[in-house]
Amino acid sequence: MAFSALQLSLGVITFGVISFVLGIVAENKKLQSGTPIKGRGAVICTYPSDPAIPLGYLSFAFLVASTVVGYLALFYPYKGKSIPHSVFFKSRTFFVFFNITLFTAGLGAALTLWPTIEEQHYLKNKVYPIGTDECPTGRVGLLGGGAFLSLDSSLLWLVALMLASNVRDDYFDEVDGETHLVEAAVSANI
């Protein structure tokens, strides 16, 4: 099945928006604290159910999906016409936006995974030494920051797709121009 640039762009933005929404909901549903129960020689923390963990992982999964679709869409052979990958990276603007987009996606992934894994760790390891007055939870604000970076990266993938389209157009204009010159030279020699 052949994909169009519009279909792949919609996939990128859809996955990015879903990642954003899930990240924001995860940040809002994240536990503020647990209940410490003092025992003999230790404090045991009890936590209510935490929907932030599955929401955080889902947000990360949709960010990865957005990134994979965005990356593949850049080099996809639209209308059966492919060009060498090196041609894209000769464009300085494309190169810069491509790297910024990858950095933003990576940072968004890190900010989404870090508090999610940390929260899961705290829910799994509930025993702490005496002197612990509060039960720890994952860092506040990182999931929300990761959510905004997920949205930013999907928007930057769209910019990179537009720049890739410009590179494609320039490449095919040059190739068509050279073909016409060769045809003219061949017909002049005949």
From TrEMBL:
It comes from Trema orientale. It comes from the Eukaryota. The keyword Transferase does not apply. The chain crosses the membrane at residues 7-26, 57-76, 96-117, 142-164. The keyword Transmembrane applies. It is a multi-pass membrane protein. Keywords: Membrane, Signal, Transmembrane, Transmembrane helix. Belongs to the DESIGUAL family. Coiled coil: none annotated. It is found in: Endomembrane system. InterPro entries: DEAL/Modifying_wall_lignin1/2, DESIGUAL. One of its GO terms (cellular component) is endomembrane system. This is Keratin-associated protein.
